[in-house]
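To: structure desk
From: M.T.
Subject: fold request, one chain
Message: Could you run this one when you get a chance? Sequence is below, nothing fancy, just the single chain.
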Amino acid sequence: MSEQRTERILFCFQKESGESFEVKEVTIKPSGYHYTQKHYEIVSEGNVVVTVGRAEELLNRIGEFQ
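Reply: Done. Structure tokens follow.
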């Protein structure tokens, strides 16, 4: 069984400079015998800028962008 990756866009935000970001929840199930792994990504223009494992970390990193 191959890896299954699902992405869900939670919300978008924009810096005062005009740069736009998407915040995604990413869920990965490596195979049928492994637990599901979840993390969050901040993405700009298709490039992952930040990856964090917990929602609290995500909020702190978003605060750094403002």
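Reply (cont.): The two ends are 42 Å apart (CA to CA). Let me know if you need anything else for the meeting.
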